[in-house]
Specification:
13-stranded antiparallel sheet, elongated, 48% strand, 5 helices, alpha+beta
Length: 262
Amino acid sequence: MTLASAKAQTSLVGTGSSYDSIFSGPDEITYDVPGVGGILNLNLSNGFDTKTSGIWNLRAQGGANTSILGFGLFESAAQTSLTGTQLEFNISNDNNTLLGLLGVGPSLHYGWQATATFGTLSYTSFTTYHVSFEMDGNNGLLSSVVGLNPGFGFELLDGSGNPLLSNGSGTLVNIAGLLGTGVTSGTVEVDYTVAGSAPAGAIGIRFTGDATLGATALGLGTGFATISNVNITASPVPEPGSGFLVAALGAAVLLRRRRLQS
C-alpha cells in the first residue's frame, strides 16, 4: 500500500458522485392534527405522519389545531420538506389565530426526522467516512437563548437503520455541540472509521430535530433548520500490521541494495 493510495478519497455523496443531487422535490409532509369532538376545542397532539419521497423517508411530529364540531379551522404543525436543493424542518402554522388561544400556559412539541438510504452504496472495512453538510438555523427557533432547549442531531446508518459510532461524538451527533454554544449555522463535519467488519446493507443518513415551543416562541417564525450541500467521502486506512509489513519490505530492499553495492 502506497502513501498516495492510503490518502485517496472517493466521493460517495455530493459533488463528483452518483448522488450529487439528493434533495429531490419539491415535496413535503405536514402532520395532520386530528380534530376532536365538541363545539369549540383547542387540541394539542404529539402524533406524527410519514412520507416516502425518492431515497428519503420524511417524518413530521406534533402540532395543535382549533376545531368546531370536529372540523379543523386553524392549525400549527411540524413540516418536513424537500425543496430540490435542501432539506427543511419547518412549522406550518396560522400563528396569529393560535397565539391567542394558546395563551401563556400550554406548549407544543414538534419533532422532525428525515432519513435517506443510498441503495447502491455499501460499507468497506478499514475505511474512514467523512460527512459534511451546511446547516442554517438562523430563524430563531434553533437558538437556545429563547429558552426552547431545542435539539438537532445527525446519524450515519447501516443497512438496518442502526447508527454507527462516530470518531469522538457517539452515535447521535449533537450538531449544536459541534458548531459551538449559541452558533446555529455553519459547516458540520463528522468522521466515522470502520476498523473491523463492514456493517451490512446500504449506507444511510438521518437528520433529527426536536423543540417544545410556547405561544411566544411560535411568533419567532416558521423555520427550524435547513440542511444543504451534503457530502460523504471514503478514505482507506491501514489495516492492522500493514505498517509493519511495509517497514519490513523497505528494510529488505535496503539490505539487498547494500549487498549488491558490496
